[in-house]
Task: structure prediction
Amino acid sequence: MSRSFHMSKTASAFELYDRANTPAPAFRRIPVVPLGLSLASFFAVTFVLCVLFDLWFPALAMNPVWAPLLPGFVWISWSGFFLGLAEVFAYGWYIALVFGPLYNFFARRAGTPAQT
Result:
């Protein structure tokens, strides 16, 4: 069976040959390092935005909710801010280090087809 390829300006003949002869993976893996960096950065940015929100609108402050989630966090001091920032960054990595391998394991077992 012949395969036809649409040659783009950036694809070389070698790249097209390589793609034609390489079987598609059985599942799409989630790379843990980019996932960890993405989640940790997202949580850090969200934490900073929440602190700014609490400073601008103290009547609507969310900091009482943070106490059980961020051990040692004290409203508001520089040490408390940086401790909270480090903790939410660590939470992002924790989620990535647990979720990424679990997803990859179950996707491989289920044989989830790769999406292109």
User: Anything to note?
Assistant: The mean pLDDT is 82. Residues 78-110 form the longest helix (33 residues). Helices lie at 13-21, 32-56, 63-69, 78-110. DSSP finds four helices and no strands in the chain.
